[in-house]
Specification:
Double Stranded RNA Binding Domain; 3-stranded antiparallel beta sheet
Length: about 350
């Protein structure tokens, strides 16, 4: 079957090899960063290291991707192509535990308090902290976080006050150096809440443009900001050559198709992506089963629950693609850290 003239080219040939090399370099740098964080953070707090995905732009050009390329971490939409990597953060629980440990060592008291207050028309949670910083020096600070009242979906739709409290506490402690690992002052929860709000706003602004295609979220160019963060990654044992099959050049982007055909094109596109997503999931499940074949069910279940913060039934097939990628990244980070220690 011939391909439509307005479809995107495959990621293949010399250009595919070049982008694959760029992607591998970015993924290696991200993995090295994660490993350095595990070396920096005491082992007692490794359970509090959380990974969030970020999309790093490779080129201002859109491609059709194979299931293997998607499983490797390539994403391509809105006229750009990205590679997904992961960035480590310390969660608020870990920051609190680090703070308590420092005060126990020094036998010093501390106060950590949160309360709501209104500033103009906005309600916020204010967190005040007074005690010692990470280095045992006297320190006090105040931090605020907006309460996301009125959200119709996302994390703020059910727990706006709790989310604001968590963000305020995390940032207040970060000013004292607790949980800072080179990812800025924000905690895992702070970034996750911000991502959820951003994606919700993007969905509302774009209407149903991305309906049926959850991976196609409007990103901003990677600059270390929130726009590039989302949820997981891996530096294979996957062999991705970048040589996808090609059936000829196509000079027009899908976005340039006529309005008359746009709805039909979207349905066709979604139906094509469903089997790709299933193949990608099968690839990930197979790799995880191989990587954990020597684990006891109890140990594996405990780790997955810790990494994903969910109740898990022990079957990788029950997880979505994003969750599978996150589990794989944690496995790789732990494996590399253990081998380095030995």
């Amino acid at each position: 079957m011939s391909r439509r003239y307005d479809q995107n080219p495959y990621l293949a040939g010399e250009e595919g090899e070049q982008l694959l090399k760029m992607a591998q370099e970015k993924k290696k740098h991200a993995h090295d960063t994660i490993l350095s964080v595990y070396e920096l953070v005491p082992a007692a707090f490794h359970k509090n290291i959380r990974l969030l995905p970020q999309k790093e732009k490779l080129i201002d050009k859109q491609f059709d991707l194979t299931a293997d390329q998607k499983a490797f971490g390539f994403q391509s939409y809105y006229g750009k192509t990205y590679i997904e990597t992961y960035k480590p953060y310390v969660d608020v629980e870990g920051r609190i535990e680090q703070m308590i440990a420092v005060h126990k060592v020094h036998g010093a008291p501390y106060t950590l308090d949160t309360y709501p207050e209104q500033i103009n028309d906005c309600w916020v949670i204010t967190c005040t902290f007074e005690g010692l910083n990470k280095y045992g020096q006297p320190f006090k600070t105040k931090e605020r976080s907006i309460i996301g009242f009125g959200a119709s979906s996302g994390v703020d739709s059910t727990n706006p006050i709790e989310n604001a409290s968590t963000s305020a506490v995390g940032r207040a402690l970060s000013h004292g150096g607790y949980g800072n690992i080179g990812s800025g002052l924000s905690s895992f929860e702070d970034i996750y809440i911000a991502i959820t709000r951003q994606n919700l706003n993007s969905k509302q602004n774009n209407g149903d443009k991305n309906n049926g295609n959850p991976q196609e979220q409007q990103p901003t160019d990677h600059s270390g900001g929130l726009g590039e963060h989302g949820m997981n990654e891996k530096l294979p044992p996957v062999q991705v050559s970048g040589q996808a099959p090609s059936t000829g050049d196509r000079s027009h982007n899908q976005n340039h198709s006529s309005d008359r055909n746009s709805s039909g094109d979207q349905r066709q596109r979604n139906s094509q992506e469903e089997p790709d997503l299933k193949r990608e999931k099968n690839v990930l499940v197979g790799r995880l089963m191989e990587a954990t074949k020597d684990w006891t069910p109890a140990d594996l279940n405990a780790k997955v629950k810790t990494w994903l913060k969910i109740n898990w039934n022990g079957r990788f097939n029950s997880l979505d693609v994003g969750q599978l990628r996150l589990v794989e990244e944690h496995l790789k980070a732990g494996s590399r850290n253990n081998s380095h220690a030995s």
